[in-house]
Amino acid sequence: MQEVIPHRFPALSDSCQAPASRPTSTKTVFGDMSSPAGLKALDEFLADKSYVEGFAASQADMAVFDAIPSAPSLTFCHLLRWYKHIKSFQRERA
């Protein structure tokens, strides 16, 4: 015979709400992707990550990719690595 222990899961109105899974826009997180400051912020973010969110390419990666007007320069090595990787998914995306 097994004992059943009831659990109370927090309701949405509780103070421990989970943060939004995705920001409303990339500009709110990294700044303007057409400016060097925005590209630098994204480059620093990607220094130890392969993707913008999670462990596989996602819609967040595609949204950030679309916000970047052209391939980044060699100055932003982490961003350039990520950019080339996400660009390789363009055929599947179409």
Largest sheet: none
State the secondary-structure class: mainly alpha
Number of helices: 5
Separation, N- and C-terminal Cα atoms: 55 Å
Task: Give the uncertain stretches in residue-range form.
Answer: 14-19
Strand content: under 5%
InterPro entries: Glutathione-S-Trfase_C_sf
Protein name: Elongation factor 1-beta
Write a structural description.
InterPro entries: Glutathione-S-Trfase_C_sf. This is Elongation factor 1-beta. This protein is mostly helical and 94 residues long. It has a domain at 31-93. Helix content is 41%, strand content 0%. The chain is built from 5 helices and no strands. The longest helix is centred in the last third of the chain and has 11 residues, at 77-87. The model is unreliable at 14-19 (pLDDT under 50).
